[in-house]
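Journal club prep — side note

Before the paper discussion, L.F. wants everyone to see what a predicted structure for a comparable chain looks like in token form. Sequence:
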Amino acid sequence: MGRGEVAPGRGAGREGLRATRPVSGPPHPGAYLGSGSAGDVMASAKSTRVWEAAYRQYGRAWETTARSGKGDPVAAREMAAASWAVAAAWRQIAAATTLPWWILAAIESAAGAFESQARDYETGGTSQGS
């Protein structure tokens, strides 16, 4: 597994996922929505840059949250803001490209998960170990 991937842990469902450190830099070239070969769909350059910046922000916020004490309101605000930024970047990609339904469903799911995480951090519903 590479950096930033999630591995299933023991048990089933969301509780069975083990989070690892998010990727703080862009993935290898061609890893977005296609490599540019025939039949692939690429996100726009602007959408890709926004997505990369949002994930860098998220990586920094994740590191701050991991180092901070449980319930640190500054770290929680940073993580909420970063999560909103990632969700918005995913939604921008969905809106700016023509994609098969199943890719759009995956993007919408990712955006929704980051929005849910942002709300959790805003309301104090996420602890340091989550």
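L.F.'s comment for the group: The helical segments are 45-67, 73-96, 101-123. Keep this in mind when we get to the figures.
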